[in-house]
Amino acid sequence: MTHIKEGDRAPAFQGNDQNGAAVSLSDFSGKKLVLFFYPKDMTPGCTAEACNLRDNFNKLKSAGYAVLGVSPDSADRHRKFIDKNSLPFPLIADEEKRIMQDYGVWGEKKMYGRTFMGVLRTSFLIDEEGIVIKIIDKVKTKDHSSQILG
C-alpha cells in the first residue's frame, strides 16, 4: 500500500521510456498527469487497462491529462506492447523498481494462496503543480478512464 496521500507532493522521478528517452515528472509541469503503475505488459488485466486508457485518450486529453504508464518490463517489451495495442502514450521501463518503490506500489501480493512481491496496480492523478489529487488503488481495468474522469 502506498505511503503517499492525496495532497502530498508527487515524488520526483526519472526513467526511460520505450524508446530509451528520459522522462521525468518535471516534463509534466503545468499539466495534469495520470501516472499509472501496472504489473506486466501483454497480460489480460494490464492490456485491458492500457486499451481502456487508449480508447478514452482523447477524453483524458480534453480534461487536460497526459498519460504515463510504469511497469518493471524492459523498453523493448514496452515497444512491442505499444505497437500491438496502438497505445498513444509512453511507458517507462522501471526494471530496477526505483519509481515503484518511491511511490509505494512495489509490495507484497497474494494470489492463489501464494505470497510474493509485485506491482500493486495503482494510479496517481497529479495536478499541474505536482500535487497528488487522487489515488486509485482499486483499479477497474476495463473501465479505468471513468474512474479518472468521474
Describe this structure in words.
The protein starts with 13 loop residues before the first strand and ends with a helix. It has one domain (about 15-150): Glutaredoxin. Strands 2-1-5-4-3-8-9 form a seven-stranded mixed β-sheet. A two-stranded antiparallel ribbon has the order 6-7. It has about 150 residues and is of the alpha+beta class. Strand 6 (about 105-110) and strand 7 form a beta hairpin. The protein has helices at about 45-55, 55-60, 75-85, 100, 145-150; strands spanning about 15, 20-25, 30-35, 65-70, 90-95, 105-110, 115-120, 120-125, 130-135. The mean pLDDT is about 95. It is globular. It has five helices and nine strands.
Structural class: alpha+beta
Total domain modules: 1
Rg is: 14 Å
Basic shape: globular
Order of helices and strands: EEEHHEHEHEEEEH
Mean pLDDT: 96
Write the CATH homologous superfamily: Glutaredoxin
CATH hierarchy, class: Alpha Beta
Largest β sheet strand count, sense and barrel closure: 7 strands, mixed
**Order of strands across the widest beta sheet?**
2-1-5-4-3-8-9
Under the CATH scheme, which architecture would be assigned?
3-Layer(aba) Sandwich
Low-confidence runs (pLDDT<50, min 5 residues)?
Answer: none
Strand content: 25-35%
Q: In angstroms, what separates the terminal alpha carbons?
A: 23 Å
Number of strands: 9
What's the total helix number? 5
Task: Give the fraction of residues assigned to helices.
Answer: 25-40%
Q: At the third CATH level, what is the topology name?
A: Glutaredoxin
